[in-house]
Specification:
41% of the residues lie in helices and 12% in strands. Strand 1, helix 1 and strand 2 form a beta-alpha-beta unit. The chain is built from 5 helices and 4 strands. The protein has a 4-stranded parallel sheet with strand order 2-1-3-4, with helices on both faces. It has a single domain, classed as Response regulator (Rossmann fold). The two termini are 12 Å apart. The chain is an alpha/beta fold.
Amino acid sequence: MKIMFVCSYNTCRSAMAKGIMQKKLKEKNIDIEVYSCGIHARTGEYASYNAIEAAKYYDVDITLHRSTNIRESNIKEMDLILCATRSNKENVILLYPDIKEKVFTMKEFAEIDNNGQDLDIKDPWGYDNNIYSNSIVEIEKVTQKIIEKIEKK
């Protein structure tokens, strides 16, 4: 199985989600490939400093992460595409309508979306460490639920 996390610039949310997911999968000895990209990313950018610091809270090191623009990614090879927001999901479907059945928001797929009322993981870019901490706590919960859902299949 191959999973792609998508956000806007691939320097915060999707980078943190990829790192946390990879760690959890490794701990459970589950063989799933995890990727990430950004709708508006410039390929080769580093993860933001605050994202790197937030990931450390979960013993996840994303210092080697480099962003990938969605058009330079292998998104069409994915089995599951998980977006940070509804807007990201809509953009992915506009760009790749033939894979729309594989595209969800992270919260939507994890079924922790407050009955469809809270589908977005807010973008922490430009905010302080507290906002990044809030984002990574949400991402950690979502990745845990995603793994549980995959294990049930």
